[in-house]
Specification:
This protein is an alpha/beta fold. The protein contains 14 helices and 12 strands. The N and C termini lie far apart (about 55 Å).
């Protein structure tokens, strides 16, 4: 691998024009070194698989780093040039860990479910309770940031699978699906990102999923809920406003401050874990602050630019700036359940308090803080660190029980 040899010039020479603009040699070097700071040094290649998607060749190279296994996803266009490059949780470790103890696997069944219509169809899984208690209430799970799979796999953990199996064990159907940016990464790159926003990334597909569940036999069309995690929680109020038929909104670690500010906060937290920041830590933080300043200076005149800032085009940042999550949630008519892990360093208790304050006097909002849970709503002790995501765990049973009980009251 050229990256493993740190031949960044050689790697960039294989990029197409858009990749060259989005990830020039200095940025590629920064990205690679930032990855190594989390994973440790590259050790070896474990294997590779190839597939075709929408006219592109997609190669998944499984790589062993010192501290974790990742897949390097390389998307090639018809001319053999690199049109996309991603580092994602490895399929080789994604099946680690069995079902959580609260999942009664004889109490539900799973079926293939396609979300959306036309060119953006997404493969999904509908988990259905077994028995005579229907029609069942149902929940659509909305991912956090990044090209997530249907289980929202992070390291050795599958929080969306845990939620689906746990809730279905309690008589609630759950739909989870692959995120658009995971399935159509190459197509999105090829068609240009100049107008790309969270509408295309998340909201459109969530609305389609909710509408489809209302039309699905065996489900109660008046009891289709939306559950958003992290970025999905930030966007849940917008989804609820766009579809008043949604029965209720569940926000898990929902952010409500600007994402670029959270990126700075997270980076400072991670740097602090190492004691005194190293020179490379300081340089990484300095580069991030420069990019954040560029995001803050964006104006509507930049909206059509395809140049990426913090891995997203200006249109993405401008759209987020225009939609205040706190203002949106005040307008939402649906019942609200807002849950937060006390050990979460990615979306912190600060955001939880801001939701609570914004909804002061709102009689249909329920709040709960879980002191020992992290961003994945898995239990631990002490300061939360990225490495704990590599240890197999389960979404806390109390969280699943609280969500199921809340849905049962609506």
């Amino acid at each position: 691998m050229l990256l493993a040899k740190e031949d960044f010039a050689g790697a960039v020479a294989r990029f197409d024009a858009k990749m060259n603009a989005a990830l020039p040699e200095p940025k590629l070097r920064e990205t690679w070194h930032g990855l190594l700071a989390t994973t440790g040094p590259f050790q070896k290649q474990l294997g590779a698989t190839a597939s075709k998607l929408a006219g592109y060749d997609v190669v998944l190279v499984t790589c062993q780093f010192e501290r974790k296994v990742l897949d390097t996803k390389v998307v090639f266009d018809a001319g053999g040039q690199v049109a996309g490059l991603f580092f994602i949780p490895s399929h080789a470790t994604s099946n680690a860990g069995g079902p959580p103890p609260y999942a009664r696997t004889n109490a539900f069944r799973e079926k293939v479910f396609t979300v959306g219509h036309g060119e953006w169809q997404l493969p999904g899984t509908l988990t259905l309770p077994i028995g005579d208690g229907g029609p069942w209430p149902a929940v659509v799970l909305i991912h956090g940031s990044g090209p997530n799979d249907r289980d929202e796999t992070v390291g050795a953990n599958k929080p969306f699978r845990d939620l689906a199996w746990g809730l279905a064990s309690k008589g609630i159907a759950v739909l989870r699906y692959e995120k658009r940016t995971r399935v159509y990464a190459g197509k999105l790159q090829a068609t240009g990102l100049g107008k790309f926003t969270v509408q295309e990334e998340t909201i459109d597909d969530a609305l389609s999923a909710a509408a489809q569940l209302r039309a699905t036999a065996g489900l109660d069309p008046k009891r289709v809920f939306v559950l958003g995690h992290s970025l999905g929680g930030m966007l849940a109020p917008r989804i609820g406003l766009a579809d008043p038929q949604i029965a209720g909104l569940v926000l898990l670690a929902g952010a409500n401050r600007p994402l670029e500010d959270l990126m700075v906060e997270q980076t400072r937290y991670l740097v602090s874990l190492n004691g005194k920041p190293s020179d490379s830590d300081q340089a990484q933080l300095g580069e991030l602050l420069v990019d954040v300043a560029k995001v803050k200076k964006l104006t509507p005149a930049d909206a059509s630019s395809a140049d990426l800032l913090l891995h997203a085009p200006p249109s993405y940042w401008l759209d987020l700036r225009e939609h205040d999550p706190l203002a949106a949630i005040k307008q939402a008519k649906q019942p609200l359940l807002i849950l937060q892990g006390g050990r979460d360093y990615q979306v912190t208790e600060v955001d939880f308090i801001r939701w609570r304050d914004a909804l002061s006097g709102h009689t249909n909002a329920t709040f709960k803080l879980y002191p020992k849970l992290n961003h994945l709503f898995m239990a631990g002790e002490g300061k939360s660190k990225p490495g704990e995501y590599d240890e197999p765990g389960d979404v806390a049973e109390t969280l699943v029980a609280d969500i199921a009980a809340w849905i049962g009251t609506h």
